[in-house]
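Deliverable D2.4 — example input (structure tokens):
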């Protein structure tokens, strides 16, 4: 049982779109990630995904609408829902999802697919 300081952990992240695990609980992981640009369209067949903005702004785009999130706001993407994330300027985001969830879901992309289980 140790304290995690999010500001310190985010300062260790030097790349975009590569989630880092900061905590695990009940087969779930708490991941930190920096977004900048446009992420590919994808879905997660078996997992819901929660995005909580720590700093900056981002959008979660769906095929029929877009949800804009600012610091302190969150959005849950239900499993099986096609979506992509967008940040016009760098955003720091906390993600809650089951362990071993691939960040690109049903898509494997040489640029965006990150390895699972990388901790900071």
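Example output (designed residues):
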């Amino acid at each position: 049982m140790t304290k995690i300081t999010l500001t310190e952990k985010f300062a260790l992240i030097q790349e975009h779109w590569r989630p880092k695990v900061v905590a695990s609980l009940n087969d779930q992981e708490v991941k930190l990630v920096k977004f900048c640009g446009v992420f590919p369209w994808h879905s997660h067949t078996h997992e819901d995904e929660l995005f909580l903005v720590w700093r900056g702004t981002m959008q979660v785009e769906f095929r029929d609408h877009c949800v804009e999130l600012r610091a302190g706001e969150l959005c849950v993407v239900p499993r099986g829902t096609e979506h992509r994330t967008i940040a016009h300027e760098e955003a720091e985001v906390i993600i809650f999802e089951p362990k071993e969830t691939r960040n690109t879901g049903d898509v494997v992309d040489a640029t965006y697919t990150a390895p699972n289980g990388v901790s900071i």
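The chain has one domain: 6-98.
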